[in-house]
Specification:
Length: 399
């Protein structure tokens, strides 16, 4: 049985739903639930009622509501593409109903921006004992970047030493300021302090303060800034030979200027403030007035380039490889009506789910992506819309 329940009906979900709908060999029946049922109905219409059998309203913060829904649908797997705040309640509901789980982002409590796996790793024994699997972070970064690292370690090196994940969106959506995925999560991520792994410890930097100008395949030179990104935590745990692991993301000057102004006036804060007798969180309000990332797809030009530089040793020789994918916004729009950031997240979620359901990656417990054989995942990236390339090259980074 390969019935899936997808929770969340935003930008990423729109890709997951449509890609799953194209592949009945992995996903025999699709059910969709989210907070706003009209968004589910729209997606059901677009993907076809023969493939998305039924849609539901659900509050995924509420475990009994989730349990009732899962018992009604009886899926083999829940694909969580709601927000990181819902990870633990959905995992609890999966445990209670005996259903496998997959997500694309680590759990976050609303009150603090932490970006760490501790809460979800604590579910390891419960999932193992229940004979259930939870696959964490099956998006692009985290997700594909973890698999790229595992692929490099398996096929190109005896030991890996230096890892630099680089994420460039070289596209133009024509808006003054917009984020490419959920604005609240995106802004929480980039306004936190920078962090990277070096010689066995985490080192901190001020937010968006360390810059390298990197040359991206198909795009050209772009200013790239060091950020903490959650996959670094699991990658340094699972590849203890890493001496240094960092993450870089490109931002344009106009984006950074808007962000600095918004930060300067307190609009990115997650501390509630009182407004006309009500408590409101400035960042939640900001999200409400920014463009919906799902709506950016039409007319979005250019492409993304996301990849991993890895330096290590093979047969006593040091070398560096770069593995990456380029993804065109316009091609994603033509295929599924989405922009490339939703697409590069949604396709890996579908692939991770397919590998669980067909048994390739099925194993009880809570797992990060790099803990499985990367080969079938890499094959499916080529097959289902995210072809990758690999080259041996000089590292653009100094040691
Ligand atoms: P959106 O904001 O577009 O969509 C989120 C969806 O979840 C919305 O439909 C929203 O409902 C729904 N939702 C929120 N709260 C609840 C709730 N309590 N109960 C039920 N449904 C709820 O986000 P994105 O599609 O951009 O992102 C989805 C996920 O993907 C996020 O976790 C994000 O961090 C992750 N992501 C991962 C990436 C990766 O590479 N690994 C990259 C990009 C994103 P409503 O419509 O009512 O608001």
């Amino acid at each position: 049985m390969s019935r899936v329940l997808i929770i969340g009906a935003g930008g990423v979900s729109s890709v997951v739903v449509k890609k799953c709908a194209m592949l009945p060999q992995y996903f025999s029946e699709i059910y969709l639930a989210s907070r706003t049922v009209s968004k589910c109905e729209k997606l059901q219409q677009e993907a076809g009622k023969d493939r998305v059998k039924e849609v539901f309203a659900v509050d995924a913060d509420n475990v009994p509501e989730l349990v009732a829904l899962i018992n009604k649908v009886k899926p083999a797997l829940v694909i969580n593409v709601a927000l990181p705040y819902q990870d633990l309640t959905i995992m609890d509901a999966c445990l209670e109903t005996g259903v496998h789980y997959l997500d694309t982002a680590n759990y976050e409590p609303k009150e603090v921006a932490k970006f760490e796996y501790s809460w979800q790793w604590a579910y390891q024994d419960k999932f193992k004992q229940a004979g259930l699997m939870a696959l964490l972070g099956s998006g692009f970064d985290p997700g594909v970047t973890n698999v790229f690292t595992a692929y490099a370690a398996k096929h190109y090196f005896d030991e890996i030493h230096y890892l630099d994940i680089v994420d460039c969106n070289g596209g133009d959506h024509g808006q003054a300021f917009a984020t490419n995925f959920n604005p609240e999560i995106n802004i929480r991520e980039i306004t936190q302090r920078g962090r990277f792994w070096e010689n066995g410890e985490w080192k901190e930097t001020d937010p968006i303060s360390v810059r390298e100008d990197l040359d991206y395949h198909g795009i050209g030179k772009r200013a790239s800034y060091l950020l903490f990104h959650e996959e670094l935590e699991s990658l340094v745990k699972h590849f203890p030979t890493l001496k240094r692991a960092r993450f870089w993301m490109t931002f344009g000057d106009a984006y950074l200027t808007h962000l600095r102004v918004l930060e300067g006036i307190g609009m990115t804060s997650i501390e509630p403030v009182e407004f006309q007798g009500q408590q409101i969180v400035p960042l939640e309000f900001l999200k409400a007035v920014l463009p919906d990332p799902g709506s950016l797809a039409e007319g979005y030009t250019g492409q993304t380039c996301i990849g991993t530089y890895i330096t290590g040793v093979k047969d006593g020789q040091e070398k560096t490889i770069f593995i990456w994918n380029n993804c065109e916004h316009a091609i994603c729009h033509e295929e599924v009506g989405a922009q490339a950031v939703s697409y590069t997240t949604g396709v890996p979620a579908m692939i991770g789910a397919s590998l669980m359901l067909d048994g390739n990656w099925m194993q009880p417990g809570v797992w990060n992506m790099e803990q499985f054989d990367p080969d079938p995942f890499m094959e499916r990236l080529n097959q289902y819309g995210l072809p990758w390339q690999v080259i041996e090259c000089d590292s653009p980074f100094s040691k």
